UniProtKB/TrEMBL annotation:
Protein name (Swiss-Prot/TrEMBL): Signal transduction histidine kinase
Highest taxon of source: Bacteria
InterPro entries per the UniProt record, alphabetical: HATPase_C_sf, HATPase_dom, Sensor_HK_TwoCompSys
Keywords recorded for this protein, A-Z: Kinase, Membrane, Transferase, Transmembrane, Transmembrane helix, Two-component regulatory system
One of the Pfam families matching this protein, by short name: HATPase_c
Histidine kinase/HSP90-like ATPase domain mapped to chain residues: 290-384
Molecular functions per Gene Ontology: kinase activity
Length: 779
């Protein structure tokens, strides 16, 4: 059971019991004052006992429903039925006995109590239980009335039937509204699944980006330094940095939503750098933890680039707050470079840092000039961190969603409108038409009665079409409302004076059903005012131009009998409007929990897979550097670090979503080789088909190894062939991509993959090495 259905049942039960208390209480107490029955004290005892019981029953039923969903104390409902049946059997002693079967003289407070109980029963029992309870109450009422006045049994047949019809109509409303609530839950669940899939994909993408950024700032930067020979030998700062790199790539370094002081974290980054860094900055600055980690990673990357490329061992770090922004600058006075000369495939500070800052809502700029130095400036708006929310997180959790609320409200409303449309048609055709046909001699104008019936039927049809098309009546409801009130006056005027407010006066209370139908979507005050206005028109007309066929107490009971049901419909409409947002909120709370659990599971699995992918290559290198087991001055260690750093660079390009990933992966590897002093000649020919990612890795693996360790010159060639039609329905040329690399021989073994559709050929001639890898589609 979904939140919309669950909340509907809880609120429906609550208001059904409250309505029952009010209606039966008013009817019984008014009758006690105006028509107390044969013995006043006996009637008073029964009336007070009934109201006390109903108050206790409502409290207990609501309490058990809240605690266990109503599964315990099931005896409450049968006991309540027994009480109502006893009240029905007591009519001889508690009501004014009728002298005639004419018109509404049969109406009394006992019938009101019985009917409002039957109307409320759908909310406390199932269909079989409702049928049995209705049958028991109806039988008890008939028995009580027969014992009180046997000769009037047939005269009350219509009212006895109406008791059953009311139970059926109430059950119809209940089932339709509950069915639409269930439909709303299903629609919201579908929306939830779409949102969860989107949230999961977004979370995995963000986590992947964060992971790659962390990998770039930590392990990749460290291995690049070692591979490039920046570190002459074992050093304490390198060991500490490698140990921190291991911790960083194991998992997230901060808790989302928490806040930290950024300044001590940046000071620690500066302290860990082997450079001599001058510090200028504020004393304290609290920001979300995840953003602080990203800012620290960016600062570390900028310092690492100074160490690797600036040709100086000094730098300046400045931290300030300018116009609501956190500003971090890393400046050196080294050799500098020309930013215009940086190629588009470059993934160093000028690209990775800019992308990282963009992910957390900030920006980064790199200003440099050959011979002058470089300044890296990172800016992050403090407003992104309000209320402890990380700027690159999904933002504050919304506990309601306008779409969900609209879905639930629309389904609630449609179910209720169909209920009232159906009920209006049933009342008109099965109750009012028989009354009209059975009392033709009671009307001054039968034509007027037929016109009124036809008019109400027309309003019902219009409302039904509007409901079917999901188009609100809008401004048309007001002319239709005026028509309904006019038809009510017409039907009343056409009833003979002596039959006003009697059985023949079918429009007396029933006309208000069409008022209710037209104003279901209106505020409660408007709904109640319009329904009351219809009754005032009818009763004022009857009192002025005719005489009532019932007593004052009978009038009160007659009005309550129908008006309570109509007010119940208006009450349900108001309840449905009021619980749409809470139902959507409950759905969203559950969705947030389920989505968070799904995201956590998925991210946990992703991180395990990433760690496993690094376990055989990156982790041993970092672990060896951290423990001092590996010497950065060792050529084999440098080569291994260079190859692994180049593989990581290829990984960064894979995640960048380039249109031609193979080309960009090779260019990224070429860029690293060129930065290490290797002269690379690169050429590409032909049209390349799309190569699967695993095959791409195998295809470029020998080139990665050669470019990472080569000295001197390297010639790299890539040739692609796209399959063509051979004329007989087969491909004349198979899709293929070939990568060839020619370089000076290396003392290290170069991988020669032979899987995932890739074949490798290796030729060594003199001091030259030629390696060719070929991928063929479909192999």
């Amino acid at each position: 059971m979904g939140p919309a259905e669950r909340l509907l049942l809880r609120q429906g039960l609550k208001y059904a019991l409250i309505l029952r208390l009010i209606v039966s209480g008013v009817a019984s107490l008014v009758s006690l004052v105006l028509e107390p029955g044969p013995v006043w004290w006996r009637t008073a005892a029964v009336v007070l006992g009934l109201n006390a019981w109903q108050l206790w029953f409502a409290r207990e039923r609501l309490r058990t429903c809240t605690e266990d969903g109503g599964t315990s104390r099931r005896w409450l409902v049968p006991l309540d039925v027994a009480v109502i049946c006893a009240i029905c059997l007591s009519q001889t002693w508690t009501t004014v006995l009728p002298h005639t079967s004419e018109d509404g003289a049969l109406l009394n407070w006992v019938q009101v109590a019985a009917e409002i109980a039957v109307v409320a029963y759908p909310w406390v029992t199932g269909p079989l239980g409702l049928a049995l309870l209705t049958a028991a109450v109806t039988a008890a009422y008939i028995a009580g009335q027969t014992m009180a006045q046997p000769e009037l049994f047939l005269g009350g047949a219509a009212l006895h039937l109406w008791l059953i019809v009311e139970a059926a109509l109430s059950w119809g409303i209940y089932r339709l509204v509950r069915g639409r609530a269930r439909t709303a839950d299903e629609q919201v669940a579908r929306e939830e699944r779409l949102r969860t899939r989107t949230a999961l994909a977004n979370a995995r993408r963000v986590d992947e980006n964060e992971y790659l950024a962390t990998l770039h700032d930590t392990a990749s930067a460290t291995l690049l330094m070692v591979g490039a020979g920046v570190v002459a030998g074992r050093q304490e700062w390198l060991a500490e940095q490698a140990a921190r790199d291991l911790e960083a790539i194991r998992g997230p370094a901060a808790v989302p939503g928490s806040e930290v002081d950024l300044v001590p974290m940046l000071r620690e980054v500066v302290r860990q750098s082997p450079l001599r860094v001058r510090w200028h900055g504020v004393e304290s600055l609290r920001v979300p933890a995840l953003d602080a980690v990203m800012l620290c990673h960016g600062t570390r990357e900028a310092l690492t680039n100074v160490l690797r490329h600036a040709g100086t061992d000094e730098a300046t770090t400045t931290v300030a707050v300018e116009g609501g922004d956190v500003v971090i600058e890393v400046t050196d006075h080294g050799r500098g470079f020309d930013p215009a000369s940086i190629s588009g495939h470059h993934h160093g500070v000028t690209r990775s840092l800019v992308a990282r800052m963009a992910r957390i809502g900030g920006n980064a700029t790199v200003t440099s000039k050959p011979g002058v130095g470089t300044t890296v400036r990172m800016t992050w708006p403090l407003s992104h961190g309000t209320h402890g929310q990380s700027s690159h997180s999904s933002g504050p959790i919304r506990l309601t969603d306008p779409i969900d609320t609209e879905i639930i409200a629309a389904n609630y409303g449609k179910g209720l409108r169909w209920s009232v449309v159906g009920m209006s048609a049933i009342i008109l055709l099965l109750l009012d038409v028989p009354k009209l046909l059975a009392n033709l001699d009671a009307y001054d104008s039968v034509v007027a009665q037929v016109v009124a019936l036809a008019g109400f039927l027309g309003i019902t049809v219009v409302a039904g079409i509007s409901t079917q098309r999901d188009r609100p009546l809008g401004g048309w409801r007001w002319p239709l409302l005026a028509l309904a009130l006019g038809l009510s006056v017409l039907a009343t005027q056409a009833v003979s004076a002596e039959h006003r407010l009697g059985v023949a006066h079918w429009a007396e209370g029933d006309a208000a059903w069409w008022v209710a139908l037209l104003l279901l979507d209106s505020p409660v005050a408007v709904f109640v005012s319009a329904v009351v206005a219809q009754y005032v028109l009818t009763y004022a007309d009857s009192l002025i131009f005719g005489h009532a066929a019932v007593t004052v107490a009978g009038t009160v009971n007659a009005v309550l009998l129908v008006l309570s049901f109509q007010f119940a419909v208006g009450m349900i409409a108001a309840v449905l409007r009021s619980i749409a947002a809470p139902a959507a909120r409950a759905a969203r709370e559950a969705e947030q929990l389920r989505t968070a659990e799904a995201v956590e599971r998925a991210l946990h699995e992703d991180r395990k897979e990433r760690w496993a992918a690094l376990a055989d290559t990156t982790v041993p290198l970092l672990d060896g550097l951290a423990s001092g087991r590996l010497d950065p001055a060792d050529d084999a260690v440098r080569r291994a670090c260079a190859v692994e750093a180049t593989r990581m660079r290829r990984l960064f390009v894979e995640a960048a979503g380039e249109a031609d990933p193979l080309l960009h992966e090779l260019r990224a590897c070429i860029e690293l080789a060129e930065r290490n002093g290797v002269s690379v000649s690169f050429a590409e020919y032909g049209n390349r088909p799309k190569v699967p990612i695993q095959a791409r890795r195998m295809l470029t693996e020998p080139a990665v190894a050669v470019l990472a360790t080569a000295r001197g010159k390297v010639r790299l060639t890539m040739v692609g062939t796209v399959g063509t039609d051979g004329g007989d329905g087969t491909d004349g040329a198979q899709e293929s991509v070939t990568v060839s690399v020619v370089a000076a021989r290396t003392p290290y073994a170069v991988p020669a993959p032979d899987r995932d559709g890739v074949r490798t050929a290796v030729v060594e001639e003199g001091d030259r090495l030629w390696i060719q890898t070929t991928w063929r589609g479909g192999t």
